[in-house]
Each structure stands twice: as structure tokens, then as C-alpha cells.
């Protein structure tokens, strides 16, 4: 096959890009080697500051040698390269394959420059494998649409210019130019899902359905159109369901058609940098919302996130946000910035954000709820139980134990920056500053 085909494909792809820097995700394998080498043949790519990124996962004894191979290869091509060593952790219930991929993309996202395009060497057969793996995992239209050619990543854009190019085109290019490549032995490990699909299943599929690749890619294209239409509906629906504070209308969400319900929840969670639930947790959240009682606060958790239903709204948070703090924690406080054990800070400042001229002497005490606290807010004729004040203020139950309480000689004089007693108000007016509580969320 004419090795000029790959260069011509990339030349055309470059003309469709905005004039931005281009970087290549370079593993040293045959596919990324062909991509990087072919781009070096294009003056337009070099003019865009062509460079490479290599991620060393440290999962193989030869990984350092592979990184050195990539460095030398780029040096020969006169292409700058940065090499990053990552730590692959898979304690989230994911396999090593998924954990390595997550670590790799996190490294890419952190090290892409503003506006830069990161070129990946995914090709036509990679797309077919991705669609089939998504199908076997029960994916909907978004999963069956396969990999996107472009999507945001960090401060730049992920770019897959070869999704329509056959693997054979890349391998022919490598052979024609005599390029040395890394052969990762894990690619032959059929205990890994993608490798098993590639070596055992797809060849047999093609024996019976010679046009399987074209049919699968056609399905992906159809699903992509469906997914784009759904995305527009999801965005419109989500805007109508979001309440003040970024919560979600629970009843209205639960009443959505199945086609929208999971996608709206997923979009809402991703907007808070939280993962979406699996199907079992989604069903349980539905059940809890539909059966919620006024005196009950349902909580559904999964790795990386949890959602609570309260007063007709869904509240999303990272699991640590719901943790209780030590009941006996207490700290002296002279008005300077105090780091709170549950996250957030407490400090004294004036209306312009400036601290008082002198620290409080003697200092006050800061601690958290133990139960039974009472305060008479300035201007109120009654002494109130703190529990009642928090309820009437609409503060969710799981956040109440994390509100810093300010004491003077064992008397509660302020509840963060929410309420102050007459004694507390007088003290704060005298020093020309008042409490400012930076919430952990």
C-alpha cells in the first residue's frame, strides 16, 4: 500500500484544524510511531510546534527502556519530547487496563498547553473494538457511537485524525520507512478484554461476516447522530431541573423518560466532577426518590460520589463530604485563618476582606456541634436552639455538623458567619471585622 496515503490523510486533517500547536501521544508502538513520523513530513505540522508526550506507566520491567527509545526516536526526528512517569492505581474497582488508561489521560490533560491539539493514533480497527466492547458492557447510544474524533482535554483538545484509516495503512508505513517500534508484550495477553476481542473474536466474525467492520462503523455513525440529538435534549432538560445551589429537582428528574433520566443525571454529576452511578445505583436512587418520606434523607453512594435526596432536591457530593468530624475537636482561634478538619476555613475580616489589625487576645474557641447548643441571635427576643435555627434556615442535615461554632468563655457567641449573639456582634464591631466561613464545597 502506498505509504503516501497516511501523509495525505494527515495533511488534509491538518487543513481542517484551527491554527494551533500539535502534540502527539507517543507510546513508541507501531501506530503512534507511524503517526508521529508522518506528521514530521508535513511542514505545517512542524510550523505548529510539533512535539511528543510519552507516559511511562511503570507496569513493565522494560518501561524505562521504552521511554528511552521514544526519547532517541524523537531526537533523531528533531521533535521535542516530554516523558512522564505515572503511578497506576486501580483501587476504584476498575481493572489494570482501565486504571492505566485513566492515569495516562490524566497526565495528558495536565501537560497539554493552552489551545494545543493532542493527536492520538487510534485507527479504524480500534474504533470497531471500542464499539463492540461498549456493546458487551450494555452501553447506550453514546457508548455505541465509539470514540470521537475531537473532544476537550485539559487546556487543549484531543484529536484522533486516523479513525477512518485502516491499521494496515499504519503498519505498511512503518515497514516502508524501516521504523523501529516497541512491542509491548501485554498486547498478546488475551486475558485483557481488548486483546481477546482483537485476536480471538474479530477474526471469526470476519470469517462469517466479511463486511463486519463497515457494518459496525455504520452503526457507530448512526448512534453518534442519535447521541448528538439526545445531548441537545439533555442540556435543555437539565437547565429546567437545576435549582438554586446547583441541586436537582428530584421529582421532576425521576419522572423523566428513561432515555433522558440517566443522561441528565450523568451530565449533572459530571458538571460537578463526579462519576455517574452504575445501573443498580441508578435504580436504587429512583426507588428512594419515589418513596422518600419527609423525615428521611436517602443516601445512595458509589465509588467516587454520593447523592442525597432532601426537601425535594438531589444533592451531589464526593463521599468525603458526608463524613462526620471528631466530636471532641476544638481549637483556640485568634481570628487568623483557621483550617477546619472537615474542609474549608474560618477567619476574621472586614468588608474588604482585610484581617483585623491585631489578633484576638484572649483567643476565642472554635468547635462543632455536640447537641443542645443554644444562642440568642442579635435582635431576637428569644434564645433559640441551634437545631431549630439550622432547620429553619434550610441547611441540609449532613452539613450541620460541619458548621464551626465560636465560643467565648464557653458561651456560644456566633455560628460561623450565619448568626451572632449581641455579645458576639459587639465584639466583632469593636475590632471592625466579622467571621468569614469558607465552605468546604
Coarse morphology: elongated
DSSP helical segment count: 16
Which radius of gyration do the C-alpha atoms yield? 29 Å
> What gap, in angstroms, lies between the N and C termini?
57 Å
Helix fraction, binned, reads 40-55%
Widest beta sheet: strand line-up: 3-2-1-4-6-5
Please mark out the parts with pLDDT under 50 across 5 or more consecutive residues, or reply none.
none
Quaternary status of these chains? single chain
Biggest β-sheet description: 6 strands, mixed
Explain how this protein is built:
The protein starts with a helix and ends with a strand. The chain has 441 residues and is α+β, with helices and mostly antiparallel strands. The chain contains 16 helices and 20 strands. The protein is elongated, with a radius of gyration of 29 Å. A hairpin with a 3-residue loop joins strand 18 (411-415) and strand 19 (419-420). The protein has helices at 4-15, 30-40, 43-47, 63-77, 96-111, 124-136, 141-144, 167-177, 193-208, 212-241, 250-254, 258-270, 279-290, 386-392, 397-400, 422-431; strands at 22-25, 51-56, 81-85, 117-119, 150-153, 156-159, 248-249, 299-302, 305-310, 313-317, 330-333, 338-339, 345-349, 364-367, 374-375, 384-385, 405-408, 411-415, 419-420, 434-438.
Summarize this structure as a short list of keywords or feature phrases.
single chain; about 450 residues; alpha+beta; six-stranded mixed β-sheet; five-stranded antiparallel β-sheet; 16 helices; 20 strands; elongated
Amino acid at each position: 500500500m502506498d505509504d503516501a496515503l497516511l501523509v495525505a490523510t494527515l495533511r488534509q486533517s491538518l487543513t481542517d484544524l484551527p491554527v494551533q500547536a500539535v502534540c502527539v501521544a507517543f507510546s513508541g508502538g507501531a501506530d503512534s510511531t507511524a503517526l508521529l513520523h508522518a506528521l514530521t513530513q508535513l511542514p505545517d505540522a512542524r510550523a505548529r510546534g510539533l512535539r511528543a508526550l510519552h507516559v511511562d506507566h511503570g507496569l513493565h520491567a522494560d518501561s524505562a527502556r521504552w521511554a528511552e527509545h521514544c526519547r532517541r526516536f524523537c531526537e533523531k526526528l528533531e521533535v521535542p519530547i516530554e516523558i512522564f512517569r505515572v503511578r497506576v492505581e486501580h483501587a476504584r474497582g476498575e481493572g489494570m487496563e482501565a486504571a492505566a488508561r485513566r492515569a495516562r489521560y490524566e497526565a495528558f490533560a495536565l501537560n497539554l498547553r493552552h489551545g494545543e491539539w493532542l493527536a492520538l493514533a487510534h485507527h479504524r480497527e480500534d474504533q470497531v473494538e471500542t464499539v463492540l466492547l461498549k456493546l458487551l458492557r450494555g452501553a447506550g447510544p453514546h457508548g455505541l457511537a465509539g470514540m470521537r474524533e475531537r473532544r476537550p482535554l485539559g487546556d487543549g483538545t484531543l484529536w484522533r485524525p486516523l479513525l477512518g484509516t485502516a491499521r494496515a495503512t499504519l503498519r505498511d508505513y512503518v515497514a516502508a520507512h524501516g521504523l523501529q517500534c516497541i512491542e509491548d508484550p501485554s498486547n498478546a495477553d488475551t486475558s485483557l478484554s481488548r486483546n481477546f476481542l482483537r485476536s480471538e473474536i474479530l477474526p471469526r466474525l470476519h470469517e462469517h461476516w466479511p463486511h463486519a467492520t463497515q457494518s459496525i462503523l455504520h452503526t457507530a455513525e448512526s448512534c453518534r447522530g442519535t447521541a448528538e440529538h439526545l445531548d441537545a435534549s439533555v442540556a435543555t432538560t437539565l437547565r429546567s431541573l437545576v435549582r438554586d445551589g446547583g441541586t436537582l429537582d428530584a421529582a421532576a428528574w425521576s419522572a423523566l423518560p428513561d432515555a433522558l433520566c440517566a443522561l441528565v443525571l450523568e451530565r449533572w454529576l459530571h458538571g460537578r466532577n463526579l462519576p455517574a452511578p452504575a445501573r443498580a445505583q441508578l435504580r436504587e436512587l429512583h426507588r428512594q426518590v419515589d418513596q422518600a418520606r419527609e423525615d428521611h434523607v436517602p443516601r445512595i453512594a458509589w465509588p467516587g460520589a454520593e447523592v442525597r435526596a432532601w426537601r425535594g432536591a438531589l444533592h451531589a457530593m464526593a463521599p468525603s463530604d458526608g463524613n462526620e468530624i471528631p466530636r471532641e475537636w476544638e481549637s483556640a482561634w485568634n481570628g487568623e485563618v483557621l483550617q477546619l478538619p472537615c474542609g474549608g476555613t474560618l477567619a476574621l475580616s472586614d468588608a474588604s476582606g482585610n484581617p483585623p489589625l491585631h489578633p484576638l487576645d484572649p483567643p476565642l474557641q472554635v468547635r462543632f456541634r455536640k447537641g443542645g447548643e443554644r444562642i440568642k441571635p442579635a435582635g431576637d427576643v428569644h434564645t433559640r436552639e441551634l437545631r431549630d435555627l439550622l432547620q429553619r434556615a434550610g441547611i441540609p442535615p449532613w452539613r450541620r455538623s460541619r458548621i464551626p461554632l465560636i465560643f467565648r468563655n464557653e458561651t456560644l457567641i456566633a455560628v460561623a458567619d450565619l448568626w451572632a449573639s449581641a455579645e458576639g456582634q459587639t465584639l466583632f464591631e469593636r475590632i471592625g471585622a466579622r467571621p468569614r466561613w469558607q465552605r468546604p464545597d
